[in-house]
Amino acid sequence: VRVIEGIREQEDVIVYPTDTAYALGCHLCDKQALQRICQIRKLSEKHHFTLVCRDLSETATYAIYNNRTFRLLKANTPGPYTFILQATREVPRVIQCKRRTVGVRVPNSPVPLALVEELGRPIITTTAARHLPRRRATAGSAPVAAATRRRWTAATGTPPRREVPRTSTGWTSP
Questions:
Q1: Rounded to two decimals, what is the model's pTM?
Q2: Closest listed residue to residue 174, CA positions, set 68, 99, 88, 87
Q3: Per residue in 71-108, pLDDT tens?
C-alpha cells in the first residue's frame, strides 16, 4: 500500500517483477522519477520507455491502431510482448520518440496488473536488467555455464528458472 501511495504522490521509482524480468517504473506524469530511472540505468534522454496498461481498452487511450492491429493485440495480450504503435496526444512528450510512437504492454503477471489497477493509470517502465557487452563464446563456455547452474541449484535447492523470451513488436497501421 505504501508503494502505491508513493507513486500516486509522484515521488517514487519502483522495482517490480513482470512476466519476463524485473522492471523499473514510475507514475505516468512524473518527470523527476523518470529522470531517476535514467540515472539508475544510465540511460540517455532518448531511451524508449513502455507504458504498462491494465487491459486492451486502456491501450486505446495511449495508442492509435486499426481493426487489423486490434486483432493482433487481442490475440497476444496479456503476455510478454511490447507493441510499438502510434502515440495519441495523451502520451507525455517525455516518453515519445521523434516518430511519435509509444510502446504499450499488457502483462500477464499479477504484480504489475495490481499496481496499474490500484493507480488507475499506466506505469512508465523499462527493464531493470543491466545490458552488459556480450562476451565471445569460448570452448570452455558450456562447462562454466553448467557449473554455474550446479552452484545455483546447490545454494538454493532449486534449478535456475529459464527466462521467458522477451519480444518487442513494431506494428504500423496502414
A1: 0.69
A2: 68
A3: 999 999 898 889 999 999 888 877 766 778 889 999 98
Count of CA atoms in the C-beta half-sphere (13 A) of 52: 29
The three cell numbers locating residue 58: 486502456
> Is 170:86 a contact under the CB 8 Å cutoff?
no
Helix (H) or strand (E) holding 24: strand 22-27
For residues 18 and 74, what is the distance between their CA atoms, to the nearest angstrom? 19
Eight-state DSSP code of residue 56: H
Please tell me the distance from the alpha carbon of residue 16 to that of residue 128, in angstroms, as a whole number.
9
Peptide bond into 78 cis (omega under 30): yes
Q: Give the integer Cα–Cα distance in Å for 133 and 54.
A: 33
